[in-house]
Amino acid sequence: MTNHWLRYLKSEKNILPTTASPSSHWTPLREIEPNLLLKLEFDNPGASHKVRAARHIVRCAVQAGHIVPGLTTVIEKTGGNFGFGLVLACSEIGVSVELAVGLSFSPLKRHFLELSGAKLIGIDQLRAGSTPREVVEWHLANAGRLGKSYFYTDQFNNPKNIEAHEYETGAEIAQQLKDLDNIKNISFVSCAGTGAHLTGITRALLSAGYTVDVTLVEPTGCDSRNSIFVEHKFEGMAVGVKPPLLDWDLVSDTVHIDHASMLATKQRIAATQGYIVGNTSAACLAAASALTVQLPKSHKVLTIAYDHGLWYA
């Protein structure tokens, strides 16, 4: 075991309790329009909210002995943002990262993942028609032949994904809301890929004493609850599987946003706020803006700027 690894284990900031502790890096929460609060998660290291879950999952795996620097390679399927989080979390401890990224996802993201130090795996398999999940499963099944000891972070089924957003992201938002005057009711507008951040943030706000209703945003033509999906450009939502970490009992309403409405909102936010948000963030903002009319001062609409829009054509 290297001195670097011992320092990592002994460092106070890396010794987490059984639940995630708030990060020392807080992203802003701003009222960008009357009654509309935007949590600027693109201000995170890695430029998205996914770094929170990636770091928590990696650190818990380290504590449990599932990740050992010098021996373990972390493997995951991702559209990019979770991958950036894994690269950041693993670079702190000298652990390699291998990612299966679907070829339909942002080419710029794939390029920057490689520049950041990730190895993109299964390119030939993906070109031949395999899914990213099938690529990961093949590598796990052939780990011995490949000379690898893999740890699969499995963001779609790992409950620590929810923990990260309940005890870090959501707790952070709840604390920031205390600085606003007399907020009692929150309408949370969110999408769902894994469903972890919607579930975690909502639970945190409820635990903090807020009355919360949740609107799930979906691309037009998709119905994640019933596993109905169409092709769309909103990366990170309605990803082709029913969100496995989404607590559907928390969802009050579902709103469908089309591509034109997303683009119009993206352009409006850039022109009026100076924020170039991603497509998924813009879709949520489109739905959120429609809910802000004639609310009392004690009621705010909350949504998330998941990442910036520079990745996307």
From TrEMBL:
Keywords assigned by UniProt, alphabetized: Pyridoxal phosphate, Transferase
Swiss-Prot/TrEMBL cofactor(s): pyridoxal 5'-phosphate
Assigned EC number: 2.5.1.47
InterPro entries in alphabetical order: Cys_Synth/Cystath_Beta-Synth, TrpB-like_PALP, TrpB-like_PALP_sf
A Gene Ontology molecular function term of the record: cysteine synthase activity
Residues annotated as domain Tryptophan synthase beta chain-like PALP: 27-305
PANTHER family named among the record's database cross-references: CYSTATHIONINE BETA-SYNTHASE
Protein name: Cysteine synthase
The species this protein was found in: Polaromonas vacuolata
